[in-house]
Amino acid sequence: LGERPFSGLGWDDKVRLLDIMREAGVLWLQITGGEPTMDPHFQGAYRYAWQAGMVLTISTNGSLLWRPDLLKLFQDCPPYRLVVSMYGASEESFDTLTQRRGAWKAFRRGMDAACEAGLPLRINVVVTEDNASEADEMAALADEWNVENHAYTNMTPTIYGGGEPLLAQSAAHLRQRKPFAGCNAGHTFFHADPHAKVSICKVGRDDQIDLMAEGIDGLTRLGAIADRLMLRTGGCEGCALSGTCRVCRPLAKHYQEA
Ligand code: SF4
Question: Which residues span the domain enclosing 173?
Answer without folding.
Answer: 11-257
